Structure prediction request, 383 residues.
Amino acid sequence: MNMNTESGKISTRIDALDALRGFDMFWIVGGSAFVITLANFTDIAWLKGLSMQLRHVPWEGFHFIDLVFPLFMFISGAVIPFSIVSKLERGEPKNKILIKAAKRMLLLVILGIVYNGALQNGFTDARYASVLGQIGLAFFFSVLIIIYTKSLKTRLFWLIGILSGITLLQLFVPVPGIGAGILTPEGCINGYLDRLILPGRIPYGKDGWMSTGQGLFEPEGILSIVSSTGITLMGTFAGFILKTRRYRELKKVIILLITGAGLTLLAIALHPVYPIIKNCWTTTFSLITGGISFLLLGIFYLVIDVWGWKKWSFYFRIIGMNPLFIYLFYKMVKIRDTSVFLFGWLTGDYENKSSHPVVTFGAILLVWGLLYFLYKRKIFIRI
Prediction:
């Protein structure tokens, strides 16, 4: 999902961005599956606990895997000061930048619909909202805000306005027949608006998981796009901190870490009265994911770009340079079956070979090998 058209340029300046993006994508392209299968295979207690963090919370609460999507959006925002703002500083017209962002948004929306299987069923019962579409829309709106505002104060006003607006809607605007502030799959205003406005199938049901029929809410729906614009904007603030020459590197790290800790603690403090819920993207969810994203970027930047310890991050940077390709590849190619074909003999008489740790680890090796092949030949699928 490399939604950054300037990734090749960025990586030479801020290696932490590519490494953190790759670390984020690693859990999608096999990392989570490996830990979960290893925990099931060994039945080790601490691995069992870790594997639980790699399973999405059905509704209220937060696990590590719930960070993956918003962290990606945060990183896509962090590159805006380097890519978009740098173009403005070189004198590129705003309308040209905006048109390019709009084309990118449209293509990602279309790819997202295809990713959801619309072509498979001839658009019958299609799901039109998607992860890729949400990324494209949030990025576009963030670019729109950044290029038509000049001051930090104005951009901060936009961010606070988005987060406050979502909070007011979710807590104080009543859903007909249910009431206000009822943050359940039936009662959250996100789902109500999606059922009212979104075309196609609403996929998620009463228990918080995807259902086969028409559901109650769409986690990538209308208000979720607004919320994700907020976290993308948070990423732009992190990008401006990294880009500025006003501060020394260690001061940048301190600012990132303090901001991250403050946002995370605020979310935790608010959680008892305003729950952290990924599927309707509550403001507390935006705050905790934004906070952890600031913390992770601060740590990665300190270790990789300030201290210069880069070699260990090469594995993740390879993934981070071609995320769109690997995201689509994983959907279209049954890489686990390929791993069974090549490494299944190593599992002995294990009945379900595809869930054996050797096979899941083999799948990770195959994917990374492919990404390395593309990297060596400077092939990067970008939008």
